[in-house]
C-alpha cells in the first residue's frame, strides 16, 4: 500500500508536462508483451502472456516479474439433449490467481478477486455473439463444452489486458477434434414398405415428418492423431481484446504497473472485437473500476480512444500468432546423419 | 506499435518426442493422451558380432543371416510388415520357416492394436527357442523414429516407418561388414516382406529389397508344404486380380461399418449377441439377444450373412408380421450341396452352382410355403447386418473327396477343395492346397481366413494334419482341439512347484512345529475308507462314521488337501486356473494338476498317511445336523473300495468289523439325507450315461457299451459330498460375503418347458407342473406308463434338457435371492469335494482354510472381480470338458457298434435296437436309443405326412395303409456306422425297422 504522499507524487508526475512514469514510458506506451502458445501439451489450446518484467528483452529486466497469465482451453463432450438454447455448445470460463501473485491479499480477498476476474471473462467470452459456430457434434444431442481456465501467475499491474490477451491467444491455439456423426438408418426399402402399408394420406406431406430428422446417435473421431480444426468465431470477428484506460483526469494512460494502479482512482475497461480485416469493430463490453467519478460525456471520446489502442494491440497480436501458426504444420525433420 | 515477441521451445523438438492423440472413452468422452518418448542412439540391431551396437545378451540374429533361399545366396534377414503377422501367422509359426526375423516395434504395436490373440501368439513366437526373432525398437532410435506428416494416414506413417527401419538396417549392415571392400558383394540382405503392392512400389523407388510373402516362400526349400500355410487373405485383397473383379456379384449383403453397428445397438435399433448355428439345418441359425426372451431366428444364407458359430454378431429384427417359426425339416448341407464346385469364384457361375442355389432356394421356399405358424411358435426373425467380433479358431475338418478335381487325383498341383468341419455347427471351408490327395482320409486342422461377400463359402488354409481319421490318436487330438481342451504336457516352471521329494514325499512325523502339522488334527486312527468307481486313481474323498456315546453319530468327509501343495499365485496355480478342470475322455484323462499330485500325493490312497481337509458333523440318528466343524487333518485311509465292493461288503451279514459297520452307518444316514432332500423338492434328473468297456488299455479291440448302474453306495457317497458342499458353502459365504466361490443352478424359465408340456399333454394326457422344483419332481414321478417302463426316464431326460446348466459364481456379484441350487433344492451350494480335478474346489479350500483361521486368505480371493474372472474361465472349461467327454463316448459307441456289427468273417451284421421318438421333423424323426445313450436321426426317403400340432408323422405304406409314429413311441431302428465316402467321417445312420421299414 502506498502512502497518500506517494500516490499524490505519482499522480502529479503523470500530469506533469511532459508526463513522467517510473520506467520512463510515455502515457500510451505498453511494456513489452511476450506470448507463448501451446504451453500445456495436454490442453486443446493454451497460451501464456507476460507483460513487462524481463519479457520484453532477453537481457534486461533483472528480476522484475511483470504480469503473467496462463490460459488453457480444454474441450469436453457435453450432453445437450435437454438444453433450451438448442445445444450449440458453450464456453465456461474460470480464473484463479496464484496466492504468490497477491501476497498482500488474504484468502477471502483473493477469492473475491478471482470471482471478479471470472465474472468479467465469463460474461465477455460466454456471450452468445462470440460462441464458436463449430462446437456442435451431433445436433441437439452432443456438443463441445470449452473450458477456458486462466491462472494469474504474477501481477504487476494491468492484469485484465493480460488476461484477455492470453485468452484470445489460447482460443486461437485451440483445435477441436474432428468428429463424424454415426447414424443408423434402418433398411430403407423395408421401412418404406411399411409406410406405404399404413396408407396415411398425411404421410410425407406432414410437417412433423420425422424421417428428415437426423438420427445420429453417436459420433466417432475421424482421426485419432489429428489435433483438429480451429475454432470458428461467428461473423468473422476476433476474440475480444481488452484495453484498460487508467483515468487521471483530464488524462488517461495505458498499461499501469501495480504502483500506478494504486495511485489511480478510476479505471475504464473496454473490450473490443474486430473483424479479421479490421474494417468492423464491436464494443463487446466495458467496466468502470475504482471509486472515482467519470462524467458521462467523457465516456464517448474515451471509447473512441480505446478502440484505436485496442486495434493496435489486436494487430500486433495477430501478426505474431499468424506467423506462429504457419510454423505449426509438421515438417520432416531430416534425421541428422550422425553415422558419417 | 506494441512490440510482441514469441518465446517457446523449438517446435521441431516437441514433434519428435511427443505423440499426442485423442481417445474416445466408453462413456463417450474424448480424452487427449500425450506420450513423451526419449530417442536414443544405442538401440541395438540384434545382429551378433555387430561392431557398432553395444552387445546385448539373449538371442541375437546370426551374423550372416538365414541361408537356404534361392534368391539370397549371401544370407538374408526378413523384416515382415504388420499384415504378414495378421494374415500369415500360421506360416510364421511353421518350423520350416527358419530365417532370422527382425520384428519392428511399429509392427508389434500395430498387431497388438488389431488383434490381441495374434499379439499373444506373436509374443510366444518371439520367445520360442527354435525361432530367431529380434525385436528392434525402431521408434526409440533417433535415426529410425518416425513423425507423422501432415495429412498422412496412420497406416501410411507405419509403412513409412517400416521402410525407414529397413533402410537403416541396410546401411547399418554395410557399415558393419562393408569396411572390407571384398565383403561388399556378399552382404546379407534385409528383406522387407509385405503383401501391399503399393508399399512395394515405394520400396523399389527407395531401393529397399522387398518381396511378397508368396514369392518369398516359393524360393524356399520346403515351398510346397509352406505354401499351404499361406492364408487366403493375403494377396488378392491388395492386388485384385482381374478374374475376381470381373467375377460374380456379391452373394451376401455387405456389413455395416463398425461404428454404425455400435450406434445402432446403443440406440436399440439393432441387437447384439452370439451366433448359434442350427445343427439340423445349415440354412438356419439364431442369436440370443437381451431384448427378447426368445432367440432371434435367422433363416437362409443371406440373412445369416457369413456368421460362423460363436461370432458376436449384430442383427436387425424385422417387423413382427414377418416373424417366423423355426423350420421343422432337416436340411443337410452335404446332400444339398453335394456337387458344388470349390472353384466357383474363379470361373463363370456354371450349372453346378446354379443347381446348388436352386436346391437351396427350394428348401427355403418349402419352408415359407407352410401355413402361417401359430403365433406362439413364432420367434423374432431378422438378419445379420454386421460382425462385432469373429471367434474363428482352427477347426478339425475332413477333405471332401468329391471336391477334388478328378484329373488331378495324384498330382501335386494347387487346387481348391472343400473341408467339412467335424462340428455340425460350421459351414464347409474352401481351401487351396497342393497336398489334397495325401490329405484325403485324414483329420486336418483348418483355419478360416476370410469370408467375402462374393464367396459362398469361407476361405481358409491348411494348418496341419492330425492323422488318419478313426485312428485313436487323431480322434483324441481332434476332440481336444475341437473343445479347446489344453492338453500340452506341464512345463518346467509348473513342475518346479511340486515338492522336491517327488514320489518319495510322505507326511512328516508328527511334530507341532513342523509347518505340515501346524494346526492339523491327527485323525490317523479313525476308520476311514474311500469309495470310488473302479480304476479310480485320483481319490479325492474319503469317509468315516462312528457312534458317539450320546447316541448321536459322528460322520466325517475327508477331502485331499490340494491347497497345501498348490499355493496361490505360482505357475502351477495359474495353469490349474487356466485348465479349470480335469477332462475325462473314454481312454484318456487330461489332468488339471500334474499327475504326481493327482494320483499320488493328494490321492487319498489306502494305508498311507495323507493330508486332508475334513468336515466332521455330529448328526442325530434322524440325520439332523447338531454341529459341524472343519479342520485340516492327517488321515490314513484303511481301504479303497469300488462302489460294488462296498455294496457287497455292506450287504454281507457275516461282516461285523468296524469298517463295514461304518459303511452301514453312513448308508443309513445317507438314506435319510436323501429323503430330506427329496422332501425339500430336489429333482431326480436323468441323463443318458453309458459306460464303455475297454478290453484292455493297449488295444482298441472289441469293446462293449452298457448303461451305468446306480448302486446304493453311489448314492451314499453322493449324499455326503452334497452335505459337505452345502456346509462349506454356508461357512465361506458367512465369512466372505463379497467373494465366496459358490455354485448355483438357476430355475429354468417356464417357457423352456412349454414344448415338453404340450407334447406330454397331447400324446399322453399328462400334465407337468413346473411352478417349482418340488412340483416338477412330483409331477415327474407321476409320468409313468405301466406298459412302458423306460418312459419315465425318457421324460426325465427331456426335462433335464429344458433346464439351464449350473454355474460357479462369486457371492458378491449376484443378488442373495439367486444363490439357490434348483436341482438340489438347496439355498446355497459350492464345490469343495474334488479339488484334484476341479479348480473351483481349490478356491473353496483356500477360502475355508481362511474362514477357520488356518491360513490368511490370498489377496486375490478377496477381490470380487478376480474371483469372477477366474470362475468365468472355469465355467467355460467345465462346459467344454463335458462336451468333450460326451463326444468321446459317442466316438467309442460308434466303434463298439462297428465291432458289434461286424461278423466273424468281417461281413457287416445289422444292429437293431429299441429307440424312442423324441422329436418329429417334416422329413424325419429324432430318436433316442437308451441302451447306447445315443441320439440319432431317421430320415425318410419317401413323402410323409407331418402333423406339427400333434407331433406325429404318418408314413404311407405301399399297400395303401398308413402308419403313424408319434413322439414317445417305441420304435426299432437299425443302426449302422457308415463311413461317408466323401469325407471319411464315420456317421451313425439309423433306419426305422419297426413299425415300418423305411430302408427302401
From TrEMBL, chain A:
Compartment(s) of residence: Cytoplasm; Nucleus, Nucleolus
Family of the protein in this entry: Belongs to the RNase PH family.
GO terms under cellular component: cytoplasmic exosome (RNase complex); nuclear exosome (RNase complex); nucleolus; ribosome
MF GO annotations: mRNA 3'-UTR AU-rich region binding
Record key words, sorted: Cytoplasm, Exosome, Ribonucleoprotein, Ribosomal protein
InterPro entries recorded: ExoRNase_PH_dom1 (IPR001247), ExoRNase_PH_dom2_sf (IPR036345), Exosome_comp_Rrp42_subfam (IPR050590), PNPase/RNase_PH_dom_sf (IPR027408), Ribosomal_Su5_D2-typ_SF (IPR020568)
Domain Exoribonuclease phosphorolytic: 30-177
This protein's name: Ribosomal RNA-processing protein 42
Pfam short name (any one): RNase_PH
From TrEMBL, chain B:
InterPro entries listed in its UniProt record: Dis3_CSD2 (IPR041505), NA-bd_OB-fold (IPR012340), PIN-like_dom_sf (IPR029060), PIN_dom (IPR002716), RNase_II/R (IPR001900), RNase_II/R_CS (IPR022966), RNR_Ribonuclease (IPR050180), Rrp44_CSD1 (IPR033771)
RNA-binding listed as a keyword: yes
All copies of domain PIN, residue ranges: 76-201
Subcellular location field: Cytoplasm; Nucleus
Amino acid composition bias (Acidic residues), ranges on this chain: 341-355
Transmembrane segments: none
Domain RNB, chain residue ranges per copy: 520-854
Domain of life: Eukaryota
Pfam families according to UniProt: OB_Dis3, PIN_4, RNB, Rrp44_CSD1, Rrp44_S1
Cofactor: Mg(2+)
PROSITE patterns in the cross-refs: RIBONUCLEASE_II (PS01175)
GO molecular function: 3'-5'-RNA exonuclease activity; endonuclease activity; enzyme binding; RNA binding
Region spans: Disordered: 328-357
Keywords, comma-separated and alphabetical: Cytoplasm, Exonuclease, Exosome, Hydrolase, Nuclease, Nucleus, RNA-binding, rRNA processing
GO BP of this protein: nuclear mRNA surveillance of mRNA 3'-end processing; rRNA catabolic process; rRNA processing
Predominant cellular place of this UniProt entry's protein: cytoplasm
Key word Hydrolase present: yes
GO cellular component: cytoplasmic exosome (RNase complex); nuclear exosome (RNase complex)
Coiled coil: none
Protein family according to the UniProt entry: Belongs to the RNR ribonuclease family.
UniProt name for this protein: Ribosomal RNA-processing protein 44
Amino acid at each position: 500500500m502506498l502512502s497518500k504522499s506517494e500516490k499524490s507524487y505519482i499522480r502529479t508526475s503523470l500530469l506533469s508536462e511532459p508526463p513522467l512514469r517510473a520506467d520512463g514510458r510515455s502515457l500510451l506506451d505498453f511494456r513489452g508483451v511476450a506470448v507463448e502458445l501451446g504451453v500445456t501439451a495436454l490442453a486443446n489450446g493454451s497460451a501464456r502472456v507476460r507483460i513487462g518484467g524481463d519479457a520484453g528483452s532477453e537481457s534486461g529486466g533483472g528480476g522484475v516479474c511483470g504480469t503473467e497469465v496462463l490460459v488453457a482451453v480444454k474441450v469436453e463432450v457435453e450432453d445437450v439433449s435437454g438444453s433450451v438454447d438448442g445445444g450449440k455448445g458453450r464456453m465456461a470460463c474460470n480464473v484463479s490467481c496464484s496466492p504468490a501473485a497477491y501476497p498482500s491479499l488474504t484468502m477471502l480477498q483473493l477469492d473475491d478477486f478471482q470471482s471478479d476476474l471470472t465474472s468479467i471473462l465469463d460474461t465477455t467470452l460466454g456471450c452468445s455473439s462470440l460462441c464458436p459456430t463449430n462446437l456442435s457434434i451431433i445436433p441437439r444431442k452432443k456438443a463441445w463444452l470449452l473450458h477456458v481456465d486462466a491462472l494469474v501467475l504474477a501481477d504487476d499491474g494491468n492484469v485484465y489486458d493480460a488476461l484477455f490477451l492470453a485468452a484470445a491467444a489460447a482460443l486461437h491455439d485451440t483445435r477441436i477434434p474432428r468428429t463424424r456423426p454415426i447414424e443408423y438408418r434402418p433398411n430403407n426399402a423395408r421401412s418404406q414398405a411399411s409406410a406405404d402399408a399404413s396408407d396415411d394420406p398425411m404421410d410425407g406431406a406432414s410437417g412433423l415428418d420425422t424421417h428428415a430428422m437426423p438420427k445420429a446417435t453417436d459420433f466417432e473421431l475421424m482421426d485419432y492423431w489429428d489435433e483438429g480444426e480451429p475454432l470458428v468465431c461467428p461473423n468473422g470477428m476476433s476474440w475480444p481484446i481488452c484495453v484498460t484506460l487508467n483515468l487521471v483526469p483530464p488524462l488517461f494512460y495505458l498499461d499501469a504497473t501495480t504502483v500506478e494502479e494504486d495511485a489511480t482512482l478510476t479505471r475504464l475497461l473496454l473490450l473490443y472485437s474486430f473483424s479479421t480485416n479490421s474494417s468492423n469493430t464491436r464494443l463487446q463490453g466495458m467496466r468502470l473500476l475504482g471509486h472515482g467519478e467519470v462524467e458521462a460525456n467523457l465516456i464517448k471520446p474515451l471509447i473512441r480512444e480505446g478502440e484505436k489502442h485496442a486495434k493496435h494491440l489486436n494487430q500486433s497480436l495477430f501478426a505474431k500468432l499468424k506467423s506462429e501458426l504457419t510454423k505449426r504444420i509438421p515438417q520432416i525433420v531430416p534425421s541428422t546423419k550422425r553415422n558419417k | 506499435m506494441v512490440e510482441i515477441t514469441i518465446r517457446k521451445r523449438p517446435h521441431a523438438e516437441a514433434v519428435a518426442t511427443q505423440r499426442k492423440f485423442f481417445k474416445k472413452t466408453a462413456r463417450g468422452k474424448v480424452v487427449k493422451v500425450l506420450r513423451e518418448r526419449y530417442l536414443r542412439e544405442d538401440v541395438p540391431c540384434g545382429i551378433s558380432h555387430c561392431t557398432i551396437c553395444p552387445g546385448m545378451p539373449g538371442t541375437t540374429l546370426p551374423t550372416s543371416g538365414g541361408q537356404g533361399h534361392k534368391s539370397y545366396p549371401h544370407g538374408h534377414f526378413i523384416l515382415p510388415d504388420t499384415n504378414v503377422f495378421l494374415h500369415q501367422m500360421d506360416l510364421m509359426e511353421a518350423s520350416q520357416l527358419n530365417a532370422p526375423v527382425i520384428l519392428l516395434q511399429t509392427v508389434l504395436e500395430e498387431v497388438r492394436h488389431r488383434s490381441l490373440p495374434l499379439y499373444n501368439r506373436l509374443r510366444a513366437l518371439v520367445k520360442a527357442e527354435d525361432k530367431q526373432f529380434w525385436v528392434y525398437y525402431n521408434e526409440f532410435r533417433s535415426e529410425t523414429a518416425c513423425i507423422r506428416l501432415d495429412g498422412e494416414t496412420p497406416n501410411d506413417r507405419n509403412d513409412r516407418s517400416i521402410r525407414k527401419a529397413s533402410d537403416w538396417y541396410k546401411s547399418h549392415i554395410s557399415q558393419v561388414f562393408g569396411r572390407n571392400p571384398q565383403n561388399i558383394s556378399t552382404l546379407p540382405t534385409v528383406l522387407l516382406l509385405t503383401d501391399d503392392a503399393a508399399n512395394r512400389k515405394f520400396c523399389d523407388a527407395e531401393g529397399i529389397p522387398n518381396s511378397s510373402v508368396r514369392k518369398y516362400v516359393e524360393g524356399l526349400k520346403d515351398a510346397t508344404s509352406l505354401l499351404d500355410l499361406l492364408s487366403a487373405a493375403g494377396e488378392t485383397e491388395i492386388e485384385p486380380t482381374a478374374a475376381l473383379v470381373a467375377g460374380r456379384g456379391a452373394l451376401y449383403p455387405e456389413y455395416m461399418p463398425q461404428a454404425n453397428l455400435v450406434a445402432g445397438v446403443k440406440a436399440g435399433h439393432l441387437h447384439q449377441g452370439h451366433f448359434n448355428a442350427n445343427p439340423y439345418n445349415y440354412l438356419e441359425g439364431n442369436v440370443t439377444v437381451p431384448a427378447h426372451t426368445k432367440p432371434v431366428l435367422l433363416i437362409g444364407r443371406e440373412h445369416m450373412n457369413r456368421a460362423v458359430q460363436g461370432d458376436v454378431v449384430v442383427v436387425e429384427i424385422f417387423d413382427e408380421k414377418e416373424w417366423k417359426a423355426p423350420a421343422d425339416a432337416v436340411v443337410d448341407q452335404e446332400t444339398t450341396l453335394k456337387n458344388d464346385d470349390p472353384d466357383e469364384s474363379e470361373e463363370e457361375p456354371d450349372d453346378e452352382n446354379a443347381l446348388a442355389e436352386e436346391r437351396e432356394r427350394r428348401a427355403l421356399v418349402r419352408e415359407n410355403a407352410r401355413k402361417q405358424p401359430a403365433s406362439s411358435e413364432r420367434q423374432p426373425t431378422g438378419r445379420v447386418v454386421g460382425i462385432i467380433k469373429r471367434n474363428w479358431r482352427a477347426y478339425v475338418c475332413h477333405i471332401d473327396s468329391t471336391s477334388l478335381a478328378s484329373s488331378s487325383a495324384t498330382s501335386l498341383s494347387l487346387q481348391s477343395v472343400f473341408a467339412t468341419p467335424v462340428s455340425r455347427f460350421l459351414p464347409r471351408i474352401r481351401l487351396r492346397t497342393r497336398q489334397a490327395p495325401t490329405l484325403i482320409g485324414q483329420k486336418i486342422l483348418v483355419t478360416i481366413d476370410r469370408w467375402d461377400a462374393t464367396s459362398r463359402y469361407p476361405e481358409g488354409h491348411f494348418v496341419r494334419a492330425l492323422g488318419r481319421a478313426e485312428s485313436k490318436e487323431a480322434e483324441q487330438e481332434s476332440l481336444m482341439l475341437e473343445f479347446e481342451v489344453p492338453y500340452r504336457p506341464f512345463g518346467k516352471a509348473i513342475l518346479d512347484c511340486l515338492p522336491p521329494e517327488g514320489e518319495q514325499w510322505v507326511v512328516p512325523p508328527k511334530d507341532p512345529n513342523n509347518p505340515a502339522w501346524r494346526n492339523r488334527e491327527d485323525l490317523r486312527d479313525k476308520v476311514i475308507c474311500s469309495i470310488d468307481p473302479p480304476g479310480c486313481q485320483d481319490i479325492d474323498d474319503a469317509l468315516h462314521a462312528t457312534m458317539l456315546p450320546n447316541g448321536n453319530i459322528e460322520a466325517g468327509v475327508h477331502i485331499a488337501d490340494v491347497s497345501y501343495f498348490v499355493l496361490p499365485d505360482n505357475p502351477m496355480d495359474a495353469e490349474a486356473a487356466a485348465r479349470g478342470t480335469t477332462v475325462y475322455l473314454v481312454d484318456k484323462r487330461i489332468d488339471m494338476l500334474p499327475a504326481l499330485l493327482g494320483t499320488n500325493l493328494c490321492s487319498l490312497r489306502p494305508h498311507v498317511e495323507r493330508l486332508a481337509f475334513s468336515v466332521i458333523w455330529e448328526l442325530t440318528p434322524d440325520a439332523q445336523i447338531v454341529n459341524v466343524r472343519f479342520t485340516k487333518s492327517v488321515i490314513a485311509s484303511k481301504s479303497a473300495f469300488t462302489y460294488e465292493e462296498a455294496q457287497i461288503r455292506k450287504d454281507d451279514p457275516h461282516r461285523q468289523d468296524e469298517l463295514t459297520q461304518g459303511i452301514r452307518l453312513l448308508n443309513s444316514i445317507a438314506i435319510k439325507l436323501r429323503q430330506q432332500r427329496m422332501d425339500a423338492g430336489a429333482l431326480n434328473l436323468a441323463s443318458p450315461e453309458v459306460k464303455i468297456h475297454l478290453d484292455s488299455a493297449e488295444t482298441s479291440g472289441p469293446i462293449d457299451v452298457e448303461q451305468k448302474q446306480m448302486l446304493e453306495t453311489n448314492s451314499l457317497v453322493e449324499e455326503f459330498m452334497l452335505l459337505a458342499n452345502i456346509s462349506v458353502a454356508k461357512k465361506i459365504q458367512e465369512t466372505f460375503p463379497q467373494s465366496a466361490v459358490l455354485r448355483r443352478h438357476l430355475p429354468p424359465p417356464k417357457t423352456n418347458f412349454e414344448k415338453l408340456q404340450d407334447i406330454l399333454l397331447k400324446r399322453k394326457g399328462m400334465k407337468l407342473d413346473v411352478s417349482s422344483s418340488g412340483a416338477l419332481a412330483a409331477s415327474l414321478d407321476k409320468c409313468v406308463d405301466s406298459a412302458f417302463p423306460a418312459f419315465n426316464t425318457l421324460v426325465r431326460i427331456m426335462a433335464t434338457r429344458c433346464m439351464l446348466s449350473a454355474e460357479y459364481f462369486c457371492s458378491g456379484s449376484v443378488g442373495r435371492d439367486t444363490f439357490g441350487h434348483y436341482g438340489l433344492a438347496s439355498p446355497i451350494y459350492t464345490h469343495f469335494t474334488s479339488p484334484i480335478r476341479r479348480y473351483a474346489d481349490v478356491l473353496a479350500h483356500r477360502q475355508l482354510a481362511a474362514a477357520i483361521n488356518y491360513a490368511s486368505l490370498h489377496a486375490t480371493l478377496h477381490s470380487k472381480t478376480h474371483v469372477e474372472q477366474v470362475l468365468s474361465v472355469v465355467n467355460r472349461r467345465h462346459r467344454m470338458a463335458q462336451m468333450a467327454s460326451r463326444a468321446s463316448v459317442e466316438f467309442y459307441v460308434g466303434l463298439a457298434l462297428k465291432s458289434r456289427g461286424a461278423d466273424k468273417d468281417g461281413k457287416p451284421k445289422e444292429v437293431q435296437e429299441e429307440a424312442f421318438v423324441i422329436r418329429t421333423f417334416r422329413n424325419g424323426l429324432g430318436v433316442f436309443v437308451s441302451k447306447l445313450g445315443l441320439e440319432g436321426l431317421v430320415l425318410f426317403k419317401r413323402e410323409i405326412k407331418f402333423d406339427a400340432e400333434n407331433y406325429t408323422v404318418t408314413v404311407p405304406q405301399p399297400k395303401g395303409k398308413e402308419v403313424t409314429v408319434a413322439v414317445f413311441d417305441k420304435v426299432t431302428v437299425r443302426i449302422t456306422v457308415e463311413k461317408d465316402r466323401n469325407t471319411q467321417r464315420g456317421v451313425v445312420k439309423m433306419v426305422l425297422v419297426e413299425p415300418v421299414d423305411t430302408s427302401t
